[in-house]
Amino acid sequence: MIPLFEVKQLTKKHWDAQVKRELFSDITTCIERPVRIALLGKSGQGKSTLLRILAKLDSVDSGEVCFNGQLMNEVDSRTWRMNICYVAQQATMLPGTIKDNLIISSKIHNRPFEEDFARQLIKEVGLDDLDWEKQAGDLSGGEKQRIALVRSLLLRPKILLLDEITASLDQQSKELVEQLLIKLHQKEEIAFIWVTHDTEQANNISERIWYMEDGKLASDLKTSEFFGDQASFPTQVIL
Ligand SMILES: Nc1ncnc2c1ncn2[C@@H]1O[C@H](COP(=O)(O)OP(=O)(O)OP(=O)(O)O)[C@@H](O)[C@H]1O
Ligand SMILES: [Mg+2]
Q1: Best CATH choice for the domain 5-228 from the list 2.30.110.10, 3.40.190.290, 1.10.3720.10, 3.40.50.300
Q2: What is the residue with the minimal CA distance to atom 27 of ligand 1?
Q3: 174 lines ligand 1 (CB under 6 A)
Q4: 43 in ligand 1 pocket by Cβ < 6 Å?
Q5: DSSP letter string over the chain?
Q6: 196: Cβ below 6 Å to ligand 1?
Q7: Mind listing the pLDDT tens digit for each residue in 26-74?
Q8: Closest residue (by CA) to atom 18 of ligand 1?
Q9: How is the chain split into domains, by residue range?
Q10: Does any ligand 1 atom lie closer than 6 A to the CB of residue 48?
Q11: pLDDT digits (tens, 9 = 90+) for 167-217
């Protein structure tokens, strides 16, 4: 059977050419089926860079990525990003209203706007009181994050790359987002790779942990093994 997602020997030189060591090297892993992964590691390890490379938003120096057996380089960026969707920590709103922002991804990808699905998602992330005619630029950071997440979910991606997407949210909103994503994983078989510094969240939302350290994918373990095995859980580091 062809794996859902394969990452083979990905290497990224440091952005700063003066730094001789790589940002990360030889990142190799395989996702056989839709799975929930938490990606952990100290600040500056390259987690966001890795996600952006996987979404074809940044270049890579060597290595390969395959989705359903298709090489990333052989798939056009728009098609790739419809299936493998990056949601940034700092959500960028396009000029216009909330509705404009929700419709835009359907327009770009030539798909019908599923308004009922959008309303359902907006409700599930706790934003049902929001007036869709409001200017998106006026939203709070946490509201923008959730609109950006809904905008991505409307594409019905197969793999979500989530970059600290609940970092600006209160506890209740954070839990709503976690519940929604777990539900979508179970019902729609969406896989996700979720970067977080919140170990409790990582434990709650994931089946596997990828842990980056010293430019390597140092652990790729079941969540219970990662947190259960004191020897492999790097308690001394600040995640
Ligand atoms: N576009 C860029 N241009 C120059 N340097 C960059 C760029 N993107 C990332 N970097 C640098 O690469 C390193 C890794 O950054 P990255 O954002 O991937 O780390 P991270 O693991 O996501 O960290 P954090 O947990 O703080 O979000 C950092 O030193 C950062 O300054
Ligand atoms: Mg980051």
Answers
A1: 3.40.50.300
A2: 43
A3: no
A4: yes
A5: ---SEEEEEEEEE-SSTT--SEEEEEEEEEE-SS-EEEEEE-TTSSHHHHHHHHTTSS--SEEEEEETTEEGGGS-HHHHHHHEEEE-SSPPPPSSBHHHHHHHHHHHTT----HHHHHHHHHHTT-TT--TTSBGGGS-HHHHHHHHHHHHHTT--SEEEEESTTTT--HHHHHHHHHHHHHHHHHH--EEEEE-S-HHHHHHH-SEEEEEETTEEEEEEEHHHHHH-TTTS-TTS--
A6: no
A7: 999 999 999 999 999 999 999 999 999 999 999 999 999 999 999 999 9
A8: 46
A9: 5-228
A10: yes
A11: 989 999 999 999 999 999 999 999 999 999 999 999 999 999 999 999 999
